[in-house]
Amino acid sequence: MKIDKKIIKELTDYLKEFNLTEIEYTEKDTKIKVSKSSIPSSNQNQNTSTLTSPKQLTPETISKKISGTAVTSPIIGTAYHAPEPGAKKFVEVGKKIKKGDTIMIVEAMKTMNHVPSTADGIVKEICVDDGQAVEFGQNLIILE
């Protein structure tokens, strides 16, 4: 399969022209998706070698960080704090929740999957940002 660079260029131009973050093109069995980087424009010119690497996690720092019950993502996808943009968030730090309450939605393949709490408790920490990509098993919230 040969990739048509002209189509990619046109899609990139559309992103800029219409101020889009993502665009997808499908024709027969070919699907092309182009998206903008979420890095603010002031950082786009930085050399990636100047970025700091994350701190190394040791079992001691992990146990200090996670003192409580972690509710993890059951799938890979994009986490959302509310059922729709502008709506009330499912959980807030300090809110008491029960086992089975929806804590977040993880969207995967255009399907919105409600993530239930696995325990009763008070929300101590929300570990992911709204709209952030999450991995299977990644901590979403920490309960006391």
User: Using DSSP, what is the number of strands?
Assistant: 10
Q: Oligomeric status of the shown chains?
A: single chain
Strand order of the largest sheet: 3-10-8-5
Domain module tally: 2
Q: Determine the structural class based on helices, strands and strand pairing.
A: alpha+beta
Shape: elongated
Mean pLDDT: 77
**Pattern of helices and strands:** HEEHEEEEEEEE
- Head-to-tail CA distance between termini: 53 Å
State the major sheet: 4 strands, antiparallel
Q: Kindly provide the name of the CATH class of the largest domain.
A: Mainly Beta
CATH architectural group of the largest domain = Beta Barrel
Q: Work out the helix count.
A: 2
Give the uncertain stretches in residue-range form: 39-65
Descriptive account of the structure:
The protein has 144 residues and is of the alpha+beta class. It has two domains: 1-38, no CATH class; 66-143, OB fold (Dihydrolipoamide Acetyltransferase, E2P) (Beta Barrel), CATH 2.40.50.100. Helices cover 14% and strands 33% of the residues. It is built from two helices and ten strands. The strands form three sheets. Strands 3-10-8-5 form a four-stranded antiparallel sheet, with no helix packed on it. It has a four-stranded antiparallel sheet with strand order 7-6-4-9, with no helix packed on it. β1 and β2 form a beta hairpin. The longest helix has 13 residues, at 5-17. It is elongated. The chain starts with a helix and ends with a strand. The relative contact order is 0.16.
